[in-house]
Amino acid sequence: MPHKLLFVGDVVLQSSPVLSQDLQALIREQDICCCNVEAPLSGFGAAVKKTGPLINQLAQSAEWLQDFGFNMFAMANNHILDYGAEGLAHTRQAFGANVIGAGSEEEAYALLVKEVEGVRYGFVAYGENGFGALNGDRDYGHAWVNSTRVDEDLIAYKDQVDILIVQVHAGVEMVDVPIPEWRQRYRELIDRGADMVIAHHPHVVQGHETYRGKRIFYSLGNFYFDGISKTTAWNTGGALQLVVDRKQIVQADLFLVSKQGNRLSLMPRMETEQQLARLNEKLQHTAAYENYVDQIAVEQWLQHHRNYYAKPFNGLVQYSLKALAKHIKRLLFHRNIDYDLLWHNMEIESNFWIVRRAIQKLRKKQ
Q1: 3-class DSSP state for residue 262?
Q2: How many whole angstroms separate alpha carbon 283 and alpha carbon 211?
Q3: Which residues of 164-200 are buried (b: 16+ CB within 10 A; e: fewer)?
Q4: Which residues touch 165 (CB under 8 Å, ≥6 apart)?
Q5: What is the DSSP letter of 283?
Q6: First to last CA, the chain
Q7: In terms of Cα–Cα distance, which of 102, 41, 103, 101 is closest to 66?
């Protein structure tokens, strides 16, 4: 009998989800069903010092997700350590033994093996660098995809299993294509032994492609993420079903899921196929794709990142009355250099790469 595996993106439950009957049926028919637990459970730990929002989710989330049928939980992401080691440890405990990508270094980088009717499946999860990454700054957090150990780990892990699935939490948020630097890194993961790479973090769905006969899904977007945005893109996610027969992935079907309030429903197949075709088309033509990414990089620099680089030093890049008032306030009351924000700008790969790309483009215009 073929096996079925389902992967969905980011989950932060601040309300009790209601799943449509067809979505419930889809989850129930899976042998393995995995989601990205994007934030620790509330009630434990203290907020850490970091740049960006601090997020947790309802204590009942672990019970709800397991009741729905999820039986594997990726935790390699940029919010899982928002409430420190205590918050993460409690969250790991609540989800049981089927956690990948976070904890101590041994736990975070470990291979989780599941055997189904004689087929050995291996699972690992990584995230890009961040305040919770195991990058040498801490001994408890999430596995870092660019750690020096990752490539050797994957080569060794592939020898232990029939199918190796790698999940990665990385990318530029709210952008519908992966940047070239992540495309290259995910291909390297295939080269090291991954049979499929499944990614999330941008909070929107991105396209997929085949590399050396193996699939890379660049972002499943959000599955159920409360409290940040109410846009259609934010509330549209991917549910990726793999079918495995005779130790080979023979089918990969991406369903789109729509969140309206607290209700999750599968989107109509025709609408799903149209949306996915548009996303995949953006990856096909190299010159057009590169130009599109460069345009996004410049837009993000002008809208966000130049302010991020000026703010740590109380700099000013906009001369509106509101900006001047904020600048004066910072000069009077916040004179220290914000090293956390500088680290956020320069050490998180997506931020660094998108800024470098923007600067390269803008220099050519001078």
Answers
A1: coil
A2: 13
A3: bbbbbbbbbeebbbbbebbbebbbbbbebbbbbbbbb
A4: 5, 7, 121, 122, 123, 124, 194, 195, 196, 198
A5: T
A6: 62
A7: 41
Taking the C-alpha atoms of residue 235 and residue 283, their distance in angstroms, rounded to an integer, is 23
- pLDDT confidence of residue 32: 98
Q: How far apart are CA 258 and CA 205, in angstroms?
A: 12
Q: Note the helical H segments in 79-179.
A: 84-95, 105-108, 150-158
Tens digits of per-residue pLDDT, 337-351? Answer: 788 998 999 999 999
- Please tell me the distance from the alpha carbon of residue 137 to that of residue 133, in angstroms, as a whole number: 8
Q: CA 8, CA 200: separation in Å to the nearest integer? A: 9
Query: Do 172 and 350 touch, CB atoms closer than 8 A?
Result: yes
Q: Is the distance from CB of 142 to CB of 105 less than 8 angstroms?
A: no
Q: In the structure, what pLDDT confidence band is assigned to residue 63 with cuts at 50, 70 and 90?
A: very high
Residue-wise pLDDT for 214-260, tens only, equals: 999 999 999 999 999 999 999 999 999 999 999 999 999 999 999 99
Query: Which among 202, 157, 194 has a CA at the least distance from the CA of 177?
Result: 202
H helix or E strand, kind and range, residue 197: strand 196-200
Hunting for tokens 């729905």 — which residue is that? 68
What is the Cα–Cα distance from 10 to 202, expressed in whole angstroms? 10
Q: Is the dihedral of CA 125, 92, 32, 59 positive or negative?
A: negative
Question: What is the token pair recorded at 231?
Answer: 């846009």
